[in-house]
From TrEMBL:
Probably a homodimer. The lineage of its organism: Bacteria, Pseudomonadati, Spirochaetota, Spirochaetia, Brachyspirales. This is Diadenylate cyclase. Gene3D superfamilies: DNA integrity scanning protein, DisA, N-terminal domain. GO terms for molecular function: adenylate cyclase activity; ATP binding; diadenylate cyclase activity. The gene is dacA. NCBIfam families: diadenylate cyclase CdaA. InterPro entries: C-di-AMP_synthase (IPR014046), CdaA (IPR034701), CdaA_N (IPR045585), DisA (IPR050338), DNA_integrity_DisA_N_sf (IPR036888), DNA_integrity_scan_DisA_N (IPR003390).
Amino acid sequence: MYNTRAYSIAIGFIILFFITLIAKIFGLTTLSWLFDKFFQVGLIAIVVLFQAEIKHGLRILGGRALFKKSFGYNEDQIQKIMSATFNLSYKGYGALIVFQRNISLHSLVDKAVRLNADISIELLESIFFKNNPIHDGAAIIMENRIAAASAYLPLTETEPQIKNRRLGTRHRAALGISEQTDAVVVVVSEETQCVSIVHGGILEYNLSRDELYKRLGELLEVKVD
């Protein structure tokens, strides 16, 4: 935290605030005027520097429903997605499966290969089969259906690492979309066959079948046994 850009800027503004306060107490009019102007410019600079974070916050706020509603997923769908996920892992195929929650993912679907298909183990496995031309990118799950495949997600600007292992594009894409929306993402690593879940910019790496089942149930608000 102490090395972040936000922390450094906050400390700088606190110091300048106290300098300005001291200048006003001792009647240093010119110095006080200069710092007042600096604060006005500084506020504009903060908006420019943190425009991505501000846009993210507004997107999250705008995407939340006034009255909370169910995400619409059920246990049967979770079971099918679980089976497909671990089948893909066993076969050594990479996968990226994105679940819509409150914030719409239609902008991703519009640029992807539209499917609008029922959720099935066979279809999910075939999407990520290596020789399938649409295996790159993500499958988007929304409104109880596989809405699209081959969707390209925004990459996180961080460099995620787990146990000194630098993670690849799929994990960076999962983190990126989870930072910009409230989506939940399941990732299968082609290199390690590890299954992970990503939400809210948090990566939970190398989950067992039972762990993933529990986390999907919690995050998608599906009651699972």
